[in-house]
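Reply to dn_fold:

You asked what the input looked like. This is it:
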Amino acid sequence: MVDLKFIRQNPEAIRKAIQEKKVDLSLDALLSTDETVLSFKKQLQTLEEEKNSNAKKVAQTSPQERTTLIERGRTISQKIEEIKPQLLQAEEKLQEFLWLVPNIPAPEAPRGLTEEDNVQIKQWGTPRSFDFPPLDHVEILDQHHWAELERIAKIAGSRSYSLRNEMVLLEAALHRFALEHLRAKGFQLITVPAIARDFAFYGTGHFPTGKEQAYFLPQDDLYLAGTAEVLLNSLHRGEVFKENDLPILYAGFSPCFRREAGSAGRDTRGLIRVHQFMKVEQFIICKNDPAESAHWHEELLKTSEEIVQALELPYRVVDVCTGDMGAGKIRQYDIEAWVPSEKKYRETHSCSSLHEWQARRTDLRYRESDGKMKYCHTLNNTAIATPRILVPLLENHQQKDGSISLPQKIQPYLSGLHKLG
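and this is what came back:
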């Protein structure tokens, strides 16, 4: 969330951010509602002062004048009671607008409207040239009976999946590798539930605009989260850290759920865009310092690159443009791994810096050594998500005999096996 005082003082900067982030928000309507709120508050303050003054006169005046003053007091109280619900309604409307105000993107972020405007800043590895007709990941899974896709869809619906035998072990190995890699870099390992109350989704910015992407459990008034970020951002909600408590580095491991509403017909084959998945998420809470935020943003990216490199997958890093990065983000990098069957790079990691935008929504603050209170900065990035990472992993490491060679750094997590199949 953006500070309301900043919005009032910098309307053109906010207006530009709304345009660049493609946010459906009328800044004029927001500012008009803000003026209405201020007007009601001023009226209430004036009436409360008048009421108090009138009450003092009642105690000091003659019996003849007291009746008139008491009646005047009743009239003032009635006006106050009439204004209060109007103020509450205006404040609720203003809050609805404030939830939608986007963060101002970093000057360095590419300007653009869609993913076509993202800018490649790095490429690692060379896409493999096969000396045999390569299979796509679904054909590989079918060949080895490593998944149940059609049968499980009859039970759980489309975009569901079930892994078998070696794929179950490979999935577990990938998460174990990622968790140990993060722990060695100072991250605290933590598991979180997949369910959360709505305030946690508002806290990260997934609500109100992303409600259609979340599964809702109406009987419990809970939602299923699509990332551990939702839970981790609210884990310390309302707390005040000491400056030397920061930074806090979390590696959150959790099941994740996304409805994928509005994506009908897109990437429906196999394991690309499924409703349920497992993910290790990097999440950082640090001081309110742009330089420190930029440092941790680069570190998050570096850590995920180390993981993808360990999997021996060709990839590229793109600097995400303003129209593709999401409302709360200052800057975003995506890692995209090469998928041979599609002859293109596909996103596997999303690395975001949000400055204090989430912390304001979650009331996440710290006290500096001089006693001054500040909102924290938050950042996040995928460490690994399955089954999506299995797509480039299987396709890039398939062999002519149908087996899958295992990256050297993953082998210790699979009893030293060099290949599967």
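The chain has a mean pLDDT of 96.
Hope that clears it up.
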